Amino acid sequence: MNALVYHGVGKKALQDMPKPALQEASDAIVRISKTTICGTDLHILKGDVPTVTEGRILGHEGVGIIEEAGTSVTRFRKGDRVIISCITSCGKCEYCRRGMSSHCEKGGWILGNTIDGTQAEFVRIPWADTSLHHIPENADEEAMVMLSDILPTGYECGVLNGCVKPGDTVAIIGAGPVGLAALLTAKLYSPADIIMIDVDEHRLDVAKRLGATKLIDSSDGRAMTKIMTMTYGRGVDVAIEAVGIPATFDLCQAIISPGGHIANVGVHGQSAPLHLETLWSQNITITTRLVDAVTTQLLLKTIMSGKLLPKQLISHRFMLGDVMSAYETFGNAARDHALKIILTNS
Question: Is the pTM of this model over 0.70?
Answer without folding.
Answer: yes
